[in-house]
Each structure stands twice: as structure tokens, then as C-alpha cells.
Amino acid sequence: MKRRSLFCFLLAFVAAFILVACGKTETKETTTTTEEAVSGASEKVYTDPSELKDSYDVIVVGSGGAGMSAAISAKDAGANVVVLEKMPVIGGNTAKSSAGMNASQTKFQEAEGIADSNDKFYEETLKGGGGTNNPDLLRYLVDNSAGAIDWLDGLGITLSNITTTGGMSEKRTHRPADGSAVGGYLVNGLYYNLVERKVPIFVNAEVTDVTAKDGAVTGVKVKIDGKEKTISAKAVVLATGGFGADLDMVAKLNPALEGYVTTNQPGSTGDGIALAEDEGAATVDMEQIQIHPTVEQETSYLITEAVRGEGAILVNAKGERFVNELETRDKVSAAINALEPNYAYVIFDDALKDRVKAIAQYESKGLVTTDATVADLAKEIDVPAETLQATLDTWNQAVADKNDAAFGRTSGMDHALNTGSYHAIKVAPGVHHTMGGVKINTNAEVLDTNGQAIPGLYAAGEVTGGVHGKNRIGGNAVADIIVFGRQAGTQSAAYVK
Ligand SMILES: Cc1cc2nc3c(=O)[nH]c(=O)nc-3n(C[C@H](O)[C@H](O)[C@H](O)COP(=O)(O)OP(=O)(O)OC[C@H]3O[C@@H](n4cnc5c(N)ncnc54)[C@H](O)[C@@H]3O)c2cc1C
After folding, report:
1. Which protein residues touch ligand 1 with a CB less than 6 Å away?
2. Alpha-carbon separation of residue 440 from 80, 311, 334, 464 (angstroms)
3. Can you give the residue ranges of the FAD-dependent oxidoreductase 2 FAD-binding domain (predicted)?
4. Which pLDDT band, with edges at 50, 70 and 90, does 15 fall under?
5. Looking at the structure, do residues 26 and 120 belong to the same domain, yes or no?
């Protein structure tokens, strides 16, 4: 049995076991996110609200990758843990993540002969972030990235297929073996591990306050089942994600982003930042909000960077390339915004489709225009056919020569675009990631405005700021949530002992 099939079987088995063992109705959900559909839908079972206790060692707020990694790590370190999620389903933005997880010096890179180094990963991330990343957090991230890949592998979450994203010179974006999107696979795998460890997961459970006494955290207030309840804990891990779905907050912090669409799930509203600020936490880089260059505008659907990483090009309405497609996101977004009209087409061929499984989802959503020949495609998307053909010819020559004289692209050039049918997706930038957030140290402790750790308060993932500086590199957020999620779990469990 393949590992993924084994996963699904175990998941179904564990879910059925819990239902029978508990003999009570639990909240069930059949996952329907894109990525889960790509990597295999699975049914999830959540803990009944009546089972919420008055006290735990560690309360994890949020069930994305950071929260679930923290909960698994805290549990494995001996703590009594609970996960509280305000949405009716778990996964947050993590479930939507597509390209993969960046990591350096991994066993999977070694197996492919990719000579990467943590120092190179550090330098390229720092460059992508405009030199404004917190150096200690970034160092911790890169030095623990390979360990995070191994940790996931040990949990049955194997990210062995490697591609690239903008701003990276080496292939270091790890994704599932079949090239499918990382998010659904990761969420399913982490969920399964929580179930296996009997960690309770409550959905529709919105944390509205972190309680504290004499400066130390004592628990949370949570709205669940129509009631507000106070639960005590010595430690709270905030893993509530970013605020990319609160477009008013986005526009207030960065007025230039008024009117943009967002790729984020509706629960990404910055709750954890407000909760931490109420306890005296400092924030950092709040105005640094990333727009992603390739978002389909009618559906706000993200077209993953892995499509360009595997060789796609961008063309303007004249059928011409206009940018190094694997520049960092801020630069590619700016190049699209400078176009007249200000949209672009992602162009790829059938061979690329086989390398990026997420494209099947874009097709099922009706986002992809497909034709047997370049000329027919050009006609359908209304760009000059001769120009589009010339653009592809020049590009394929650049791939053969490994020399993109026009725009200096150096990565995502392993394959020519010459296997019909040909495909196009119309895109423009959309709000995607909030780099700023709560200030933490390398122990994932939340810092107050004097730089002191707030006793018992931890945070990890997109709710925090500092790791990415003013521009996040594709693939680095998933690295962030796993590396710092683990750390928040381990440290909070140590604190409560
Ligand atoms: C479409 C898309 C594609 C992406 N692709 C990639 C990629 O390929 N690689 C990469 O590195 N990054 C990617 N990212 C970014 C990355 O997915 C996120 O930054 C990351 O998953 C955030 O994880 P998290 O655990 O911090 O937060 P989330 O996964 O967003 O989880 C936070 C959870 O907390 C819950 N919550 C919020 N407030 C409360 C509250 N008050 N009480 C209880 N629960 C609460 C939320 O509902 C949510 O479920 C992508 C993002 C998007 C939107």
C-alpha cells in the first residue's frame, strides 16, 4: 500500500474508532479545499464541545501548520494540550499552501545531488527580505529547516520532491513525492498525528482573550457552542495566522493595497496580534504586507509559484515576456502592476502540467485556457499569435542555452515549453501574506515592548513578525510554521513542567 493510501486508511480507521469509543456525536467535516482534493480528500472528526475541560497545561490557539506542529511537539514533550480553532474546519491558510516548504542541507536534496547550504539559504532570504529580517530568527529558521523536514518525515509527512521559487538559486522547495500541493497533505498528516496522540481539537471555538495574573498567562476565554468559557493553562501558544483576510486592516496599514483581492481564508483576521497586544506584546513590520503576483482575479485563486518554478513564463497583453518570472514576489508584482493593461498570462505546456499537480485544480475551476497550438491559444486569449510564438521560441532557446539574455532568469529553466497542448491563466497581484506580527525570540516566547518575554505566552507562524523582513520568499512560510511551531510546543511544554 502506498504511504498516502496508508494515511487515508489510518485516518478513517482512527476516526471510526473515536466515534465508536466515545459513543457520541462529534463534529464531522469532509474536507473540500483545493489542495486536499489534489492530494486526496479525507474526513475529519473533531472533539465534541461538551468535552472541553476547565484546565490544560498548554492551550494552542489556531489549527494551521504552526498550531498543529506546536500541539504535537508539546504533547510529545509530556504536556496535556488542547487545540482551539475558530473556524468550522481546521487548517487555516496552511491548507491552501501550494508550492512547498523551503529547507536547506536536507537528505532529499542530498539524494538529488543538490549542493545547498544553510548559509546560502540565509543570505538569499535576507536579500529577498531587503536585509530587514530579524537575523536571529532567520538563523534559527534555516539551521532547523532540515531537522523540520526530518521531523515531518518521521510523522509520515514526506516532502521528497523538490522544486524552486522566486529569489532562490537552489532547488530547496520541498513538496509531496507526486508534486502535489503541500497544504492539504501537510494538514491531513498533522491532523492524523494529533488524532493518534489523542489531542482534543475543538472547532467553532474562538479565543477572545488571553487571561493573565501578575504578568503571567493563566489561560484563555473561548466562545464555543454559543457560550463563553474560561479555561486555565500555564502556557498559551498563539498560532492564529496572519491578517490577510481583513482587507480593511490591510488598507489601513498600507493604503496602496485598497481594492486588492486576497488569497487568504476568511479566518485570517489578525486575532492573535490583538490578543497578544492586550498582554503588552510588541509588534514588528506590521505595514509589510505581501502581494502575490499570480492571482486569478475572479476567484482570488492563487496560481502557485511552482508553475513558474517548473518552467512557465509570464507574458503581457502583447504576448511578450516583461520580467524575470522568478524574481522575488515584490518585484514580479510591481512589474505586472506597471503593465498597461495591468494583467499578465502564465503560459505553460502539457509537459509542465504533469509536473505540477495543482494545475488539475485550476482546470477544474475553469481558470485555464487550453489550445492545441500556440496560434490558437494566442487567438483565444487575444494576444498577437506571431509575437507569442516568437516569445516561446526565444524562451526555448534561452532554456537550451541556459542563458536568458532578455531578463537574466537563472532558475526554473530545466524544461522547454514545446509540448502541446498550450495553456494560459490570466493573473494579477493579490494580497497574500502578512510579514509583520507579534515579536518573538528564538524560543518562540512573545516579547513585550521592553524586549522581555511575557511568562507563559508563546507564538509561532504568520501571527509573528521578523522572520521574513519586508518580503517573504515563496516556501519560507511553511518552513517558518513548522520550525517555530515545533519550538513553541517544545518550549511551552518545558515551561509548564
Ligand atoms: C493560497 C495560499 C498559498 C500559499 N502557499 C504557500 C506555499 O506554498 N509555501 C509557503 O511557504 N507558504 C505558502 N503560503 C503561506 C502559508 O500557507 C501561511 O503563511 C502559513 O500556512 C500560515 O500558517 P499558520 O499556522 O501560521 O496560520 P494558518 O494556517 O492560517 O492557521 C491559523 C488558524 O488560526 C485560526 N484562528 C484565527 N484566530 C483565531 C481565534 N481567535 N481563535 C481560534 N482560532 C483562530 C484560523 O482560523 C486558522 O485556522 C500560502 C498562503 C496562501 C493563502
Report:
1. 61-67, 84-87, 92-94, 96-101, 182, 206-207, 239-241, 263-264, 267-268, 271, 302, 433, 461-463, 474-478, 481
2. 23, 37, 30, 7
3. 57-478
4. very low
5. yes
